[in-house]
Amino acid sequence: MADRYDLIIVGMGSGGMVAAEFASTLDIKVAVVEHDRVGGDCLWTGCVPSKALIASSKVAHRMRTAGEYGIEPVEPKVDSARVFDRIRAVQQQIADTDDNAQRYRDMGVDVLFGPARLTSPNEVAVNGSSVEGRFILLCTGSRPVVPPIEGLEQAGFLTSETVWDLQRAPASLTLIGGGPISIEMAQAFNRLGVKVTVLQKGQGILPRDEPDLVGRLQETLREEGVDLRLVVDTERVTVQDGMKVVHGTERGEARTWASEEILVGAGRRPNVEDLGLEELGVEVGRRGVVIDERSRTNVSSVYAVGDLGGRYLFTHMAGYEGVRAVRDMFFPGKGKVTALVPWCTFTDPELAHAGLTVAEAEERFGEDDVSVWRQELTHSDRARADGETAGAVVIVTAKGKVVGAHILAPHAGEMIHELALAIQQGLKLSDVASLIHVYPTYSIANGQLAAEAAFEGARKYRWLVRRGR
């Protein structure tokens, strides 16, 4: 007879771990199934290793630019093998303390290892045995897309997963794609002394972000030495004299780009295979498992979250959706997953996003009802003190309410949250002004823009000002 549970979670990445921790606080019996390592993409091939690499690259950059701070600059001697050793050490520290099976067993969660396959709406097969659950939560994530470029497989290439298997950085690197993963990696490797070229098909990188701030970031990358190529069509890859050569066109003209390694950053594909979904009748679309606003599939006992559900492919979204799904399963009243998802590209400076861009707001509400509030970091005392003035804060309002926020700044990922909350709560920008911001911080730019809105409102009522005799 199969072991019986209230909840079976398949996949112990960001969504599965948070869902399991939340479920462990309830009076229910929970099992999780993981085919590889606890921690998923975020720990082993995504957020953690990339941010550790970025941290090392930032140190190297500060050494080169120390002259701007009255300190003699030096060209750093980068031992990329030690950089990669540090990355692995950071990963292992997290795996040993937070992202490990025993921690979840101590919470009362049964942890099973092996490939999982759904054999019925309430049953999962694992290593020849079966477990039964009232509900099944699928959190199997995604993997990099490999575009069908002639010769790519034969030449060999890296992805955001396999790059961390390197023992040291290559001497030169061509990145195919201009999304967040490619752009973060491009700047980091460039700062560590790698000759970097980025090939982007579109007119610009990071097409989902505010174009003005993206343009500024592009210029920063180019100034630092990243060879950023736009409107590129990649056609084939060859190997010549030990170098991997990408053949294609740039703005219609034939070009080639040679490097020691190629890193493909052309998007991600949901891990829907070998789960038994088709046999069970679970609907699967191009973006992943088809789910409703409560993360339910068309099979009522089966939910899917994170990259598998294809809404927003972010670690923080997977965790949020996992908790919401468990709440939906076991608590009265039904909620829905929010459509407001802030994100950040962790370049230097960082580029953070919440809500609508200027163009999206004008399309939705009409130009007459949209106002754009902007402050350059050159007006931020903290940015000037830190020598970090290459950025800006852009806040978009519609009929007075905050509907979008975009920040290019150091720590932009930390700054965006109060503005995301303002969007979620339907606040006016003048409402944000009622919060006293600590001085001197980068976040005070948010407060200064909010104060401008409040002052503008006050001007309308200046006729009420009490005047002396």
Structural features, described:
The protein has 469 residues and is α/β, with parallel strands linked by helices. It folds into three domains: 3-39 and 99-144 and 269-330, 3-Layer(bba) Sandwich (FAD/NAD(P)-binding domain), CATH 3.50.50; 152-266, FAD/NAD(P)-binding domain; 349-457, FAD/NAD-linked reductase, C-terminal dimerisation domain (Enolase-like, domain 1, 2-Layer Sandwich). It is built from 15 helices and 23 strands. The chain has helices at residues 14-24, 40-44, 47-64, 80-97, 101-106, 152-155, 180-191, 211-224, 277-280, 315-330, 358-365, 381-386, 412-424, 429-432, 444-459; strands at residues 3-10, 30-34, 110-113, 116-120, 123-126, 129-138, 142-144, 172-176, 195-199, 227-229, 232-240, 243-250, 253-259, 261-264, 268-270, 284-285, 288-289, 302-304, 343-345, 350-355, 370-376, 392-398, 401-409. Strands 1, 2, 3, 4, 5, 6 and 18 form a seven-stranded mixed β-sheet that branches. A hairpin with a 2-residue loop joins β12 and β13. α1 (14-24) packs parallel to α10 and α3 (47-64) runs parallel beside α7 (180-191). The longest helix has 18 residues, at 47-64.
Structural class: alpha/beta
CATH topology of the largest domain: FAD/NAD(P)-binding domain
Average pLDDT, all residues: 95
CATH architecture of the largest domain: 3-Layer(bba) Sandwich
Cα distance, first to last residue? 92 Å
Which sheet architecture does the biggest sheet show? Answer: 7 strands, mixed
Tally of helical runs: 15
Taken from the alpha-carbon principal axes, the silhouette is globular
